[in-house]
Amino acid sequence: MSELKDVMRDLLLRGRFSDMEILCQGITFKVHQAIVCTQSSYFSSAMCDGFKESTEKAINIQDDTPETIERVLSFLYLREYSEDGHIIQYQQPISALAICDHESGSSLPENKLEISEPANQAAFNNIEVFIAADKYAVFPLKTLATLKFSRWANTNYSSPMFHEVVQKVMTSVPPHESALREVIADIITRHIFDLIKNPEIVRNLDSFGSLGSLVIT
């Protein structure tokens, strides 16, 4: 099993035998339709419905960051993603699993260690991955992102920036998706006497009536 994972990692990092490109804010991810399209109806439709993307074998994504696309692809190839880092370092301010810089065409090194981000960024990364997984119809990734988010939130609910995480969930996650909201509501319910001492949390509950309803049910 580890040998197969090594092969999949090599395919992702090096882009060998790729037959599809995902372009995101100047970064080109060289990927494989057999891996990406079989796990995402979004990418499958883009490649098979006879539109421009299917002819050029390239999809241009601007709504998500390269870091988020990296994590989505990491899951599709490796069934895992790093919530607080990246597998390889990129020369520009971002770090991504992109195979080449779209501007220069330069290849990325294969032997970089995972690059870490600030620990408090993990929550926001997991939220963005969850949103992307919903958008691209990668449903097992939504489950993993929810699990990672829940672990972070249960450990860091007393963090000074927890209210910012709550606000991000309530304003960014699509209304039809309740998983992350339920995680937040459960934590607030279990730690209500501690959290109501934080005026920002109280403000969150006042601002988002649906969250308050989840807390009291």
Automatic annotation (TrEMBL):
InterPro entries: BTB/POZ_dom (IPR000210), SKP1/BTB/POZ_sf (IPR011333). Residues 18-85 form the BTB domain. It holds the Pfam family BTB. This is BTB domain-containing protein. It comes from Penicillium oxalicum (strain 114-2 / CGMCC 5302).
